[in-house]
Each structure stands twice: as structure tokens, then as C-alpha cells.
Task: inverse folding
């Protein structure tokens, strides 16, 4: 499509990181500890997310913020992603998730929609490694090819996707993506 560019995710991501290795606890001590099992039907109920005890260094490097996208990196949910729209101030993510934090040039909402497209899933399926437990790593995610519309279109999409739609009226963001 005219004006579209294909970029590698790693070229525009501020960071692609693994989370904290710790055990979850129901005791309210330490930061909230997001796991893939806490992401259900595209939502997180932060009231039910457990906590974890981890050192300050691990917590600071794995702290979540709105706009982050987390990915399952192994198992049956490999490639499943979730856009953090809101989260507690003190929330981290588990080490079997990968967090992508993008810069100002790429809208995380647009990327989140792309990460549900057939193009994305084809790349994940081709990249998954392992026999017993297929998975992807941070290096693999950085090589994903992302079709990027012109900035104006990207800003339009951001606005359009933030509007409240009923399920029947919600546009499919991948309909206009090139294969």
C-alpha cells in the first residue's frame, strides 16, 4: 500500500524485556505480579492478581505502565499478547512473559491490534522453536515485521480504536493491512 512501511519491531521498541522470576503470593506484600493466567478474555482483574516478593532492582526493571504490551513466550499460549491500558502503580510481570515498550513513533494501540492479525500469527507460528514446549524469545519478537501506516493514518486509527463501539460495529483493524 502506498505510504506504508514495514519495520522490524526491534527498530522502534524502546525495550523488549523479560519479567521477574519469583513466586506469586496471596499475601499483599511487594508489587502486583501479572501472569498469563491473569489475562482472561482480553482483560485483567487487578483485584485478583497476586503479589510477589522481589528485590527492588528486579521490580524497577520490570515495572508495568500503560502502553506496555506483554506476550506469552512459551507453551500453548505462545504469542498471546495483552496491551496494558491501566495497571496499579506497583505492578510487575512474570519472567515467562515478554514486555514490549514502544517509543513515540509507533502507537501501542495499533501494535496491539496488529498482534491479533493473521500476519502476526503466521510470523509467530513460523518463529516458534522447541518440540515439547514451543516458544519465542525477545530476539524473535524484535525481528517481527510490522506494516506501519503513514503517521496520519496511525493517529486516525488510534482515535478510532478508542471510541466505544458495540461488538457488531467494531471495525476489524487488520482488514486494511497488507498480507
Result:
Amino acid at each position: 500500500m502506498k505510504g506504508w512501511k514495514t519495520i522490524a519491531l526491534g527498530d522502534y521498541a524502546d525495550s523488549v524485556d523479560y519479567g521477574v522470576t519469583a513466586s506469586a503470593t496471596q499475601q499483599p506484600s511487594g508489587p502486583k505480579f501479572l501472569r498469563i493466567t491473569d489475562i482472561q478474555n482480553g482483560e485483567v482483574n487487578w483485584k485478583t492478581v497476586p503479589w510477589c516478593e522481589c528485590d527492588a532492582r528486579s521490580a524497577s526493571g520490570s515495572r508495568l505502565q500503560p502502553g506496555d504490551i506483554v506476550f506469552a513466550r512459551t507453551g500453548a499460549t505462545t504469542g498471546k499478547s495483552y496491551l496494558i491500558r491501566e495497571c496499579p502503580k506497583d505492578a510487575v510481570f512474570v519472567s515467562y512473559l515478554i514486555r514490549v515498550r514502544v517509543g513515540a513513533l509507533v502507537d501501542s494501540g495499533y501494535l496491539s491490534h496488529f498482534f491479533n492479525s493473521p500476519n502476526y500469527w503466521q510470523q509467530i507460528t513460523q518463529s516458534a522453536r522447541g518440540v515439547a514446549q514451543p516458544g519465542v524469545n525477545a530476539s524473535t519478537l524484535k525481528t517481527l515485521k510490522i506494516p506501519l501506516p503513514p503517521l496520519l493514518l496511525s493517529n486516525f486509527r488510534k482515535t478510532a480504536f478508542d471510541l466505544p463501539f458495540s461488538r457488531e460495529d467494531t471495525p476489524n483493524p487488520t482488514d486494511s493491512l497488507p498480507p
